[in-house]
Amino acid sequence: MQKLVLLGGGYGNMRILLRLLPSLPADVEITLVDRTPFHSLKTEFYALAAGTSTDKEIRVAFPEHERLKCVYGEVVRIDREDKKIYLGDGEELSYDQLVIGLGCIDKYHGVPGADEFTYSIQTIAKSRKTFEKVCGLAPGSTVAIIGAGLSGIELASELRESRSDLKIKLFDRSHRILRDFPEKLSEYIKSWFIKHNVDVIAESNITRVEEGRLYNHDEIIEADVIVWTAGVQPVKIVRELDVEKDKFNRPIITDHYHVVGDENVFVVGDCASSQLPPTAQLAEEQGERIVKVLKMRWKGEPLPEKLSEIKMKGFMGSLGKKQGFVHLADTTVTGRIARLMKSGLLWYYKKQNEN
Fold first, then answer.
1. What pLDDT, in 10s, does the model give residues 295-322?
2. In angstroms, rounded to a whole number, what is the distance separating the alpha carbons of residues 101 and 314?
3. Residue 246: inside a domain, yes or no?
4. pTM for this predicted structure
5. Residue 293's closest CA among 280, 306, 275?
6. CA Rg, the chain, in Å?
7. What family is this protein classified in (predicted)?
8. What is the CATH number of the domain that holds 279?
9. How far apart are CA 128 and CA 79, in angstroms?
């Protein structure tokens, strides 16, 4: 019996399960390892932290299959030589093929105090803690959000909708929001923040974080809660994996999506090296290609020299529950229609992953 082990129940491995389980070969069994007994919709963690979505709304049950085993625990070691996975409770799992999709954690860029004194939305557990802290604040309190990428933008806007009484400051390192995209989009988001009294601090440089305050260049800014959304890095176990990595400590993957020198270990999602930005869409596309490789190998078919190139379709973002923005195929859509498009995509994703 071939043993396929999937580490992490994120978007990439969920796509692998969705494609493999309906026609899983009789001599293959799959083990999924995750810390939680459900798939978490990471793209919606900002809403959980802001208090506009419930925990249940951003979860999807793992699929069920007679040859799918779900194991819940913390991965502490990956032994490629013996093809074994070690969990924190002492359990050992052997594999023939392994897909590492353990995701990422915040990257603090060496800013003193950032790890200790900021909150996060990188995991569902951390998002819950952020929700408890933010939504327990007294009226008039200040929330500082460091990082004005998609996560920071959505968190700031959703928090404004959740708590109109709070002072919200969004720190952007660039001269304009989403600088790599059309200026029309940046201006739309900027105007929304102005209208809804969210203070965007452009060209910021956070040099230090302390309890209740942060340093932007030489200016000291008081804040009751500081949330970090300014960059990610692979989880520690992946950063320490003995494989060839890129400058961001992500395992370099071949044209067939396995690590260099080991065709039985694949990497998917945020912890895999890529020229494309880490998104759920990228993880799913990588998962599709890993499925193709696995199926061809199991059938004994020769692999193509290269698989089809991944081309990102664009991205969607929300500004509260009523407004949003979409950038697809060099076309930008903003407003209510864009928000409905995002909500529709979320509904469809949950629907196709239901048992």
1. 999 999 999 988 999 988 888 999 999 9
2. 22
3. yes
4. 0.94
5. 306
6. 21
7. Belongs to the NADH dehydrogenase family.
8. 3.50.50.60
9. 33
